[in-house]
Write a structure and sequence with these properties.
The protein is an all-alpha fold and 220 residues long. α3 runs parallel beside α7.
Length: 220
């Protein structure tokens, strides 16, 4: 075996050639030709109680220590690999949840302003015979229609964008062939947003219904 050169500088600037490289770096053919073939085998064990996977893995390593056996839990390995991605998605969900609450509060603010700016219209409606419950219901229906359009458009655009993203070539290389849409969770979030919007609109709707007719007609 011919030695071509020795690295005088490792991966760091400390000057130690072993600071970033450990041992001999070469191809597998050279290792097998000099040291012989590497003997290894993979065995997979299925447990009835998957919660004991880590404990069983440690017991296997302890029992086969002299043979150089290494045991690990596939569930734990997968969780460690996906921990960073899960943290990122949780962060995005947190920001999305904050945006949802801010949007719901904005609808309530708009409803309050609508009551103040349309007092004269409310007075006209009450003067021609509209009851308080009818006036309150009209404001609720108006806010519900706006919230329903926002929920449907947001869900539709999000599902469409995520479907196109997950079906792109980058994810196709990873072996992803289908897209799962959690309609149950999405429906619960949409119903929560719609219900919270109606709740935020209920108070200004009651205020609009309680405006005296004469006072509302004098309002400019």
């Amino acid at each position: 075996m011919r030695l071509i050169g020795i690295l005088s500088l490792g991966a760091s600037s400390s000057g130690d050639p072993f600071s970033g490289f450990f041992g001999l770096i070469t191809n597998r053919g050279l290792v097998e030709r000099v040291f012989g073939g590497v003997e290894f085998a993979n065995h997979y064990v299925r447990l009835r109680d998957t919660d004991q996977a880590e404990q069983v893995a440690r017991q296997i390593e302890a029992a086969l220590l002299t043979g150089g056996a290494q045991a690990t839990s596939l569930i734990k390995d997968r969780e460690e690999q996906s921990a960073l991605a899960k943290s990122f998605f949780y962060l995005v969900q947190g920001f999305a949840g904050m945006g949802l609450f801010v949007g719901i509060a904005a609808v309530g603010v708009v409803a309050f302003r609508s009551v103040v700016e349309r007092r004269q219209q409310i007075g006209m409606l009450r003067a021609i015979g509209y009851k308080r419950g009818t006036v309150a219901l009209s404001f609720l229906l108006e806010s519900a229609f706006i919230a329903l359009l926002g929920v449907l458009s947001g869900i539709g655009l999000a599902v469409l964008l995520s479907t196109f993203l997950l079906q792109s070539d980058e994810f196709d290389v990873m072996g992803m062939r289908s897209v799962y849409v959690p309609w149950g969770q999405i429906s619960l979030i949409g119903l929560f947003a719609l219900g919270a919007t109606l709740l935020m609109t209920y108070i200004p709707s009651r205020l609009a219904a309680g405006v005296p007719i004469a006072e509302a007609l004098r309002y400019e």
